[in-house]
Amino acid sequence: MSVAIPVLYVLGAGPGDPDLITVKAHKILQIAKVILYDNLANKDLLSLAPEDCEKIYVGKHPYGKYTAQETILELIKEKAFERGMVVRLKGGDPFIFGRGFEEILFARKHGIETHFIPGISSMQALGFDDIPLTHRAVSESLWVLTGTKKDGTLSEDLKLAMQSKATVVIYMGMKKVNEISNTYIEAGKGEMPAAIVQHASLDHRKSVRGVVKDLPVLVAQHKLTHPALIIIGKVTDLVNN
Prior knowledge:
Layout: E1 7-12, H1 23-29, E2 34-37, E3 54-57, H2 69-83, E4 85-90, H3 100-109, E5 113-117, E6 142-146, H4 157-161, E7 167-171, H5 177-186, E8 193-198, E9 206-211, H6 215-222, E10 228-232
Parallel strand pairs: 1-4, 1-5, 2-3, 2-4, 6-7
Antiparallel strand pairs: 7-10, 8-9, 8-10
């Protein structure tokens, strides 16, 4: 009896719409032995896998119940040596605030062959809401930040980003929307155009536009929650000009 070669594919599930995965990702899912998937990966993608594929949910709901990262790493090791091919299916792109590279380094350390398949990040789906990430008339660059660091604080990089004319995109920032708004207000930039987009690539997308000082009120009025992106900059106001 041949022993399966342990291999891990860290695969980007894209921004939600199951059609927005790469051709390569589609092919790999069709031959997966085990899929470890998170809560941001569209469950329709699981139907691409063979009938004998083992599907294990290892989701992390923001600010709620989650599967510990240590548990996920142990499952990667266990299933790779038990069944051979493991797919770690992660929402968006696994290398953008996704801890995908941590999982690859762990796998390599334990003698598991690794492969990376990029995914479309949720910020790239903002185009469905008429928000380009850059526009030569108003924004020549882009800052992409996490709203909540490992220690729970807001990234100090936001204050640096505010000094530029760049578009600012904040992931995982809904719990910090008051702090983000106040940071701009204190810097005299409370009138900066801003938007929040939830489920950017899906039919039930929700979004609001306004100025950054009003974001907390807009969140409450429109009942926005995670997963959502906060976008600050003049690119959010181009459709009105």
